[in-house]
Amino acid sequence: MRYTYVVLGAGRQGVALAYDLARFGQAKRVVVADADEHIAGAAVTRLAALVPDQAASFVRARCDAGRPDEVVALCRGADVLLSAVPYRFNVALTDAAIAARVSFCDLGGNTGIVRQQLTRHAAALAAGISIAPDCGLAPGLGNILAAHGVASMDEPEHVHVRCGGLPERPVGPLGYKLVFNFEGLVNEYSGKAEFLRDGQRVEVPTLTELEEIEFPPPVGRCEAAVTSGGTSTCPETFCGRLRTYDYKTVRYPGHFAIIRALFELGCFEETLTLRDGRVVMPRAVLRALFEERLTFPEVRDLVVLRCTVRGRHRGRPCVRQYDLFDRHDEQTGFTAMERTTAFPAALVAHMQARRLLAPGARPLEIAIPAQQYLSELALRGLRVEECLLNE
Question: What is the CATH number of the domain that holds 301?
Answer without folding.
Answer: 3.30.360.10
